[in-house]
Design a protein that fits this description.
It is a single chain. It contains ten helices and seven strands. The protein has 196 residues and is an alpha+beta fold. The N terminus and C terminus are likely disordered.
Length: 196
């Protein structure tokens, strides 16, 4: 589904840290290496097809929302990529309902996981918030050595570099604030979806 496509952006299993371990940065590539790096979309796809697969739901979601080209193309992005486990933790029926609205709720949720600039872990820990392509902001706080987004979502792996930005793996789904939703339908649907 749509949320699966978002997961595709997450790093391959060999690069993932356990959810309880503090986030660990990867080596920073040189500018010459940047052209050899895969795009964010390729990182998600590779991870979705890995053993074990970690981002199949994110990949499916990104594909359903029509965001593969965006995340494959030029630009500099930061993707906070939820794992398959993060999607599985959503209330029953939520994922299917969101995937059924690829141009509304799904796109809003996925774009809320993307910042329009490359933010390495060293940048993220210095911020109080980061604006997203969805229009809302993600709050950022370091608590007991862990980076927390919107108070409840933990960054579990950092600095998976791509040719067009960076991926940080997260342990839950970020939901856009109701007042910043680009689709009014989404704000109406999410509370009822979660209640089912």
């Amino acid at each position: 589904g749509v949320l699966g496509l978002f997961i595709v952006f997450a790093l391959a299993t060999t690069q993932c840290a356990s959810p309880t371990a503090p986030a660990q940065p990867a080596a920073t590539p040189t500018p010459e290496m940047a052209e050899e790096l895969p795009s964010i979309a390729e990182i998600v796809a590779q991870s979705a097809n890995g053993d074990p697969a970690e981002f199949t739901t994110l990949l499916a979601a990104v594909d359903a929302a029509g965001l593969v080209d965006t995340l494959s193309g030029p630009g500099t992005f930061t993707v906070f990529a939820p794992t398959d486990e993060a999607f599985a933790a959503l209330p029953e029926g939520t994922l299917d309902a969101v995937l059924a609205d690829p141009e509304g709720a799904l796109t809003d949720i996925l774009l809320y996981h993307v910042a329009g600039e490359a933010l390495m872990a060293s940048d993220v820990v210095e911020l109080d918030s980061a604006p997203t392509l969805q229009g809302g902001e993600i709050s950022i706080e370091v608590v007991d050595g862990n980076v927390m987004l919107n108070d409840t979502v933990m960054v579990v792996a950092t600095d998976i570099e791509a040719s067009n930005g960076v991926v940080h793996v997260i342990d839950a789904i970020l939901l856009p604030p109701a007042d910043k939703a680009t689709s009014g339908e989404m704000t109406e649907k999410l509370p009822s979806i979660a209640a089912n």
